[in-house]
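Researcher: First entry.
Model:
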Amino acid sequence: MNKYQRVIIIVAAVNIALMLLFPPFLDNPLRRGVFPNFEGFYPLLTTLGVKNIHKELLTLQIMFVVINGLLAWLLLDRPPTKGVQPEIRYTRAIGLFLLGNLALLLAFPPFESYPSMVKFEAPFFDGFYFALGDKRHRSFFIPLLYMEVTLVVVNVLVVWLLFNNVRRAELFAKERILELAQALPPEQRDEVSKTLGYNALPPEGGEAHHDPHLGVGPDRRKYRDPRYRGPERRRGGDRRIKARAAA
């Protein structure tokens, strides 16, 4: 289990804990022969025993979190290749994950009940149905839909921030190891760079030192910058020095 999978487990566990601490409750109808309906989310410790829990809705919520967590776990389960942990590009994956969840929520939104023609009563939550099905003429139950979309967006942002912290911690650890590796012999230093997946140390016997000029610094083409994770596009020597020598 890698660090990104641990983040997914923690976020899923926190979501399930919040759902159990603030579960959906049913109302207590005063009229006889009226079925209880969804009333709202209340603290468990203060409302349990006074109202009944909406078990079906709570089960759907927990299943939604578990399925999302399991899917993210499987996508992040990437075994090491030749002893090197593969790099996880999570930004685009998180965006696609957000779009998929929002599409699912909008495809099966919560609907209100049919308005009664006999007596006046406020519309209540009736269930989740396909948006283009036979219930499409009903109105959406906006409070619950708004809460679902908000929680999905908040969870995605939290996961993205935690993944960024994990990535920064990994880069800092690699840079620290490479700084300490400068005091090692060349053979051991090359082995450290190979293990980390990139050569961030300048090789022995580089080019001759040039006098400093405006706009000219150390030649970074000799080694890869650990902060840059893309493909290497630099070729050849320093064109600034060549142009100055030709002049």
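Researcher: Second entry.
Model:
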Amino acid sequence: MYVCRFIDGEAVPMDETAIRDVLGPVTVGGMPASGLPESWDLEAEDGGDSEVYGDSEWLTFTRFSTGAILDRVAELARRTGAVILLLDCPAILPNEADRKHLPEPLRVDAIVVPPAALTGQAIAQTIAPRPETRRRPVLPHFPYHPNPVATGSVTASDEACACCRQERGWVYTGPVYAADAPDTGICPYCIAFGTADARYDASFTDTIDGDVPQHVITAVLKRTPGFLAWQSPTWLTHCGDGAAFLGHAGTRELKAFPDAVDDLRRRCAEWGWPPDQVEDFLGSLDKNGQPTAYLFRCRACGAHLAYADFT
């Protein structure tokens, strides 16, 4: 796996400070006082590891683990505007505007994963399907959940849908709220087209937070894939509309979204916690553990929102 930045088809140096900030904390033995080593080993918080070679212009990751290592790679790409190049996979771009700067052979197949959705899981999702020979159909458009594959709410499946009985290539993995609906196995098309709602009176999120029109409530609760949470999931709203769910987040992931952290801080203060307890809580957020934050973006003004829960 390679991480590099292109301008007019040529590799250019990435921000060395960003490289040190992102990879330094998981570099075995630490970074040198200045510059970058010619090669070094990474050991992430979850025990995953990788070997790294190169310089600020071109970094090569070999024998890399999934999990936290890929989270670091995703953060590096977000911080530097770099491209992620995977063997036998399309290049991953954080912004569509960067496509024109890629070397021409990479441009057509490159995929754009917006910074808010560019996570280690998104990289893994790009890698994992490659051995499959079949092509998955295009997912329905979910305006309130723009990338349900990256968030883990939809995954590839060759099983027939429990609702429509058709093999759709994808399956929803989040919660289902209905007396007679199956807990698993509903395809995202039955959610988007209202089939699951009509058949089971099913909802896919427990509650929506805020005063919004009824058609928004219906769209969010009954036409949008939900997400797993430690408590009953709540969908946030802003500017009179449902917000777009971007995924689970911990303290590290939220560093890129200070407005979401401020929103979390406000919500925690409403629980009656003193400021020091609030800050300790914000510092303990864990994307893959608990407490976990749930990140949203306003579809109107672009503000980022978040709430957190735990068992």
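Model: Note on the second entry: Residues 229-309 form one domain.
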